[in-house]
Amino acid sequence: MTEASPNQLSEMWPGLLAEIQAANHILLASHVNPDGDALGSALAFSFVLDQLGKSHEVLFHHPAPKYLNFLPGIERITNQPSGRPADLAIVVDLEAIGRIGETIYPAIAAAKKLVIIDHHQPNERPGDIRIVSTKSPATAAILADLWLPNNIEISPEIATLLLVGILTDTGNFRYPNTTPHSMHVAADLLEAGAKLTAINEAIYLTKPLPAVKLFGKALSNLRLAADNQVAYTTLRQSDFTNSGAIEEDTEGFVNELLAIDTVRMAAILRESASGRIKISIRSQGPIDTTQVAKQFGGGGHINASGAHSDDTIEVAAEKLVEAMVQCLASS
User: Fold this and answer.
1) In this predicted model, what pLDDT tens digit does every residue of 153-182 receive, in sequence order?
2) What are the chain's domains?
3) CA torsion sign, 224 to 226 to 230 to 232?
């Protein structure tokens, strides 16, 4: 099922619960370069497995970004699987199996059964059991719809983690994927003890100085195209070195470009230490960023996608802008 209503999601929980109860050991995982929805969803599930008395591990290829180190249970994540055989792997917020990451993929692949819980438009359809709702704004919202009607105790820790996932994937309820239902779910989580003030302070009101310096460089590299309807910028490894910033410090940069009043589509290209180019694309309204991301082997949502390129940053930028302009013209 690729589309499910909240009621349909809640009806899926008993079947998944039976699989969980039958498993002796469970692996939880998500995608590389984890964000608030990936970490919030996986850690919330970890606390639920605690309630159910199930042995489990929380596996991530990359560590959590520093701004999410306040999350309850963050110390649980590891990129070193124990080696204990798993009956069940539950992977959240993942649409393509290749995005799990090489350090934990063998453990996930060796599990007897794979469950995928996700809200992305699927590039692939991995998983023996798939709980997918592309209408949900976040995987955390799907989990809330699985648990709230089904007598799972939503502790303040679980509530906080789920709210982080919903807030970060809706841009603090600013993005078009925000729905009335997601607002109701957020209210339920607040009533359950979610720490909204702590979330906002950590994610939206605190920036390290190197991140601010790097954003200044991103602005100085800003370029416009298509009558100022397309904005893009580039960051080289030297920019990170000179500012003292790291990759996670670019979180939110592309959204600031989209805030320019004439801009309908924005992107940022970052050069990694390996030389590979990471691309983030955002748009407004009905402009489908996945049309661009798929040309670079990526994917995501209508208004937010990501991809990579093995070209130089100059060539990647040229190809990206051409694809964005074409996308804009066809929208």
Assistant:
1) 999 999 999 999 999 999 899 888 899 999
2) 6-203 (3.90.1640.10), 210-330 (3.10.310.30)
3) negative
